[in-house]
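Session log. Operator J.P. requested a structure for one protein chain; no other inputs attached. Running the standard single-chain path with C-alpha cell output.
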Amino acid sequence: MILKLLNKHRIKFNKKLILDLGCGPFFFEKFLEKNKIKTKNFILLDKDKDLIKKRNFVIADFNYLPFKSEIFDIVFCIDSFHFLNNIHEIKRVLRKDGILLISQFLRMDNSELLKKLKLLDDFKVLDEFLFNWREREIIILLRKC
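Structure written below.
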C-alpha cells in the first residue's frame, strides 16, 4: 500500500534527502531496495544503540532530531509515530512542500495518535488508507504547507 500511495502521487526519490525516522532493523530500507528503489539518499535514524551500524545511520532521540531545519524532502515514519512526542521536530526538519508518510498500527485506544495527528494542522492530507491485514493499520500521506 505504501508503494501504491507513493506511485499514485508521483513521489520520486531521485535527488531527495530522505529521513527514515525510527528505522529499527532496516526493514523498510530493505523493502524499498527489493522494489528497486535506491536508498542512497536516506538517513536512517533510531535510538537503539544495538543496531548494526550502516552508512547514513544516526543514533538519536526522535524528539530532538540532530539536523538542520528544513533539510529533508521526505520523512518516513513507519510504525514509529507513536514514539514521537515532539511533533514540532518533524515540522522543523521537513522542507516546505515536503512529504511525510506515516504508517501506524492501530491499537484499542487511539486517542494519543489522534491528538498527535491534529498537531499536523499545517500539513495537507494527500491520501490516507486504513486496512486490516494481520493488524489494523493506517497509512497517511501528507504534504507540508
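Operator note: The first helix runs from residue 2 to 8.
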